[in-house]
Amino acid sequence: MLPWIIILRPLNLLQAMLAVVLTTAFLGEMDQMQILIMLILSVVTINAGGNIINDIYDLEIDRINRPDRPLPSGALTVGQARIYLIVLFTAGLVFSGLISLGTFIIAGPISIPTLIAYSACFKRTPLVGNLTVSFMLGLAFIYVGAAFENIQPTLVMAALAFGFTLIREIVKDLEDMDGDARDEARTLPLVWGEIKTLNFVIILMVFFVFIDLLPYALGIYNQVYLWIVLLGINFPLLLFAFILWKQPIKKNYSRVQLFLKLDIFVGLAALYFGQTF
Hints:
By secondary structure, the chain is mostly helical. It has helices at 3-6, 10-26, 33-57, 59-65, 70-73, 78-97, 101-120, 128-147, 154-175, 177-182, 188-192, 194-211, 214-217, 223-246, 250-273.
């Protein structure tokens, strides 16, 4: 795959696109095709720019953790990457402005500065970086709600996305400890220690399997949501929590981190098919 595409992290962008489409469908606005297209384009370009700036700031870490990435491998230069992200951020702002003032405000004064601040400093601050990434993913749902002037139904979706992403981000920090230590990053495992961080993320996993049942208990989502969550999210989440507790090694951190990334698709399916009409 071309380095110009790899640096954008296509899987992450696909998740963002699906989140936009499913949220739009959830709000019953699929007939608003022009707005939907602008939403997809703005979310993809802004997220892509954020992924590039993250790779720029993580260059030294990635030389150790992910040497095959476009920048550490030399497939792209830092100068090329900077021009690329400026073009993408600019395009994202234009697309957001074509939707509404509300989406432009979320994209401009909030999202892009937050993405830059995350890569520049928040990422290396214990827990703050994890919370920032989680906030940004949750904000994507609210962004769609703002486009259709109907934010309230997206708040539950944003909250669930926030919690699930927070777990994944902390597991990712456990996976990346070696490279982060050489770059003197202050991630949670390097400040708290591996065992304390591991115990914390296992507690979050257990806590989440109760929290994600609340929308069903409150009647916001139906039994389809319940079964998808139980079988597709909660059971695997508890299984991986047990695996991490028994064998806290890098290989297992990598497996759990990948599972959490892919399982977001299951969560999106639960939100869409489990809505109460």
